[in-house]
């Protein structure tokens, strides 16, 4: 992850960020890519526990939390696995109400 070139992806994400109101989220190690692009600077974020300590060293400007997910406005992040479903249900409830979130969960 640290050795891969994400410049094409980051260029596309920056364009998307400028042109739309869409959320740009990351799951598992994807938070590393968002942090590389500066999207998470000054924000709370989550990442898979395998990357947590190194992430804190490389990106001190990101407030990394030991949460399964962080629904920080435009840039939600989840640590992966079932945390992804938890984040999805949280965002559905936030945007469309608890009833729909419960229905999707069922």
Describe the protein in words.
- 47% of the residues lie in helices and 9% in strands.
- With 106 residues, the chain is mainly alpha-helical.
- The strands form 2 sheets. Strands 1-5-4 form a 3-stranded mixed beta sheet. The protein has a two-stranded parallel ribbon with strand order 2-3.
- The chain is globular.
- The mean pLDDT is 94.
Task: Describe the structure using short key phrases.
5 helices; mainly alpha; two-stranded parallel ribbon; 106 residues; 47% helix; Rossmann fold; 9% strand
For the termini, the CA-CA separation is 35 Å
Strand content: 5-15%
- Tell me the series of helices and strands, N- to C-terminal: HEHEHEEEHH
Widest sheet, order of strands: 1-5-4
* Mean of all residue-level pLDDT scores: 94
Q: Which structural class best describes the helix and strand composition?
A: mainly alpha
Which fold name corresponds to the CATH topology of the domain at 7-80? Rossmann fold
Number of strands: 5
Summarize the structure.
InterPro entries: Class_I_gatase-like, DJ-1/PfpI, INH-QAR. With 106 residues, the chain is mainly alpha-helical.
């Amino acid at each position: 992850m640290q050795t891969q070139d994400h410049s094409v992806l980051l260029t596309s994400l920056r364009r998307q960020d400028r042109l739309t109101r869409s959320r740009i989220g990351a799951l598992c190690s994807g938070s590393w890519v968002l942090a590389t692009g500066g999207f998470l600077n000054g924000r709370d974020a989550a990442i898979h526990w395998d990357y947590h300590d190194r992430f804190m060293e490389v990106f001190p400007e990101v407030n990394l939390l030991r949460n399964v997910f962080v629904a920080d406005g435009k840039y939600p992040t989840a640590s992966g696995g079932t945390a992804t479903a938890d984040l999805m249900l949280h965002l559905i409830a936030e945007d469309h109400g608890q009833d729909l979130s419960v229905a999707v969960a069922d």
